[in-house]
Design brief:
Layout: H1 3-46
Length: 56
């Protein structure tokens, strides 16, 4: 394989690499948003209303 062939292969792979990186960024954003919402929902579900706590 010559240097020209190697360069040509690298140029051809570059758009694929860029597309994969963009998809990974999109996935990570969605995953982070999902985790944030999940944490908020779990935190809200664990809070006890103070007016229902009875002290004997």
């Amino acid at each position: 394989m010559t240097d020209n062939d190697t360069q040509h292969d690298a140029i051809r792979r570059n758009p694929l690499l860029e597309a994969a990186q963009k998809e990974m960024v999109k996935f990570e954003r969605k995953e982070n948003e999902f985790r944030r919402k999940d944490r908020e929902e779990r935190a809200a579900a664990l809070r006890l209303p103070l007016n229902e706590i009875k002290i004997h």
